[in-house]
Amino acid sequence: MLDALQRTRLIHNKEMAFSTMKKIIALVSINALLLPLAATAHHSIFGRFDGENLAEIEGVVTAVSWRNPHITFLLSRTNENGEEEIWDIESTSMSNLRRWQIEPGFMQAGDRVRIAGNPSVRGRNELYAVHVLIPSGEEVLIGASLEPRWANDTLASRPQMLGNTGGSDLGIFRVWSHAGEMLFPETVTPNFDFSFYPLTQEARASAENFNRLTDSPILNCEPKRMPIIMEQPYPMEIIEKDENTIVLQMEEYDTIRTIYLNGSMPISLQANPLGNSSGRWEGDTLVVSTSGMNWGYFDTIGIPASEQIQTTERFTLSEDGSRLDYRMTVTDPATFTEPVELEKFWLWYPEVTVQPYECLAE
Questions:
Q1: Which residue intervals of the chain are DSSP H helices?
Q2: What's the pTM?
Q3: CA 16 remoteness from chain centre
Q4: Angle 120-122-123 (CA atoms, 0-180°, nearest 5)?
Q5: What are the C-alpha distances in Å from 295 to residues 47, 163, 229, 261?
Q6: Which of 303, 226, 217, 296 is nearest to 259 (CA)?
Q7: CA of 205: how far to CAs of 210, 283, 335, in Å?
Q8: Which residue of 23, 118, 133, 281 pairs with 128 in a disulfide if CB–CB is 3.0 to 4.6 A?
Q9: How confident is the model at residue 145 (pLDDT cuts 50, 70, 90)?
Q10: Looking at the predicted structure, is the pLDDT value of residue 115 above 90?
Q11: E strand or H helix at 113, and its extent?
């Protein structure tokens, strides 16, 4: 596992920054594989909640909303002064609950529950729930620990998916699952050091002036686009639509990318947030070149992208067919002083399918 996790890297001329951040990414990736933390953190809980600490509260649930990208509920409790407080509680996505075999409805309005979660960094009555003790005495573990905090009985089933050996004869066209590595390390790294990227002076200033709480391009269910959509931590199906067209169907935001093979890309295509992608085969590797991306962002935490941005992606099947290796090279002279290279991989689990995401804005 460690050898695989160490494959996550970002190549640029800051060798010392690379060495330090690589260790951080490896630790985060290990947690993500076991927990998986990264699937909850990718919607930028960093900057809103203190991921280093847990706080406990107890009270009565007054409202629940089961939705993507996060489930939310309100909790009423009486404070030390005998006054009623209303707490806004947030937690993981419906997509994660499904895969962890936790059925929605484990908690309802009127239930008295105990919550342990990450407190607000702004001192507000807000919590990111990771443990919930429900009236039945069972504890729901929501992506933060495999060990119960209060009870022996739990409502969490996370089979350890270690990959499926075999499938070499199936090729690339199937459903691939996130394996814990985050393609963009800044999305799971608090206080990210932007010197990790070879940023231009203008791009660095833009990133440092970015407010994660108010400026995020994915607030209220606005979808991720290229290039960061390729980080999405849910299943992705690669579909051979016809001999000239490949479709990437990604669960997050119900995203569809189309790749045109053999020079079949329509001339009439205009710039758009996902860009225009042409593909070719180099042996068993699918190579995809994308340009015409006008989303305006490289990531979701402040690094911009100009309309000069281009990506080259390589999808390579492992020898035994159980793993799909991925490499993205990004060039954008307005943002980076040299190309940036990012890597991750997906694993194949025969039982996994792409589910509707159905994000609901607040």
A1: 2-5, 15-34, 38-41, 94-99, 201-208
A2: 0.76
A3: 26
A4: 75
A5: 23, 34, 11, 23
A6: 226
A7: 9, 42, 11
A8: 118
A9: low
A10: yes
A11: strand 112-119
Instruction: Copy the structure tokens of residue 103.
Output: 């059925």
What is the per-residue pLDDT for 46? 55
Which structure tokens are listed for 160?
Answer: 């350890």
Q: For residues 38 and 59, give the distance between their C-alpha atoms in angstroms, rounded to a whole number.
A: 28
- Map out the domains of the chain with their CATH numbers: 2-34+165-347 (no CATH), 55-141 (2.40.50.140)
Please report, as a single letter, which amino acid is at residue 250. Answer: M
Q: Do 69 and 361 meet the contact criterion of CB atoms below 8 Å apart?
A: no
Q: Please give the Cα distance from 208 to 114 (Å, whole number).
A: 38
Sequence-ordered list of residues with C-beta below 8 angstroms from that of 75, at least 6 positions apart, any chain = 57, 59, 60, 61, 62, 86, 87, 89, 113, 115
Q: Using pLDDT thresholds of 50, 70 and 90, give the confidence band for residue 316.
A: very high
